[in-house]
Amino acid sequence: MKLKAKASNGIVEVKCMFKHDMLSYSEAERKKVPANFLTYIIATVGSETVFEMSVSQFVSKDPFIKFTYKGGIGDEIVIKTVDLLGQKEEDKIAVK
User: Fold this and answer.
1) What is the spatial distance between Cα 46 and Cα 75, in angstroms, rounded to a whole number?
2) Alpha-carbon distance 11 to 7, whole Å?
3) In the chain, fewer beta carbons within 10 Å around the N or the C end?
4) Low-confidence ranges of the chain (pLDDT < 70)
5) What's the CATH number where 43 sits?
């Protein structure tokens, strides 16, 4: 997971690139492996949820998302993902 977060005038812009194959059911069937794609992404600052997304098999390999929220320099953003097989990943970044 690659993260960037930058504050400007009280608005924080967050860019996230996830490293994931995002194998749909049909692709997995052709490759004879289990389907596996991200199903859920959430971003929090402290106890506040600033971004939440349900994901499906129709998102491309290594997805990229960008979102904004009201915040400032020094916020610590925690990004968590869950995939179809239940594997979880978490990363943190401080806003610059």
Assistant:
1) 8
2) 6
3) C
4) none
5) 2.60.40.10
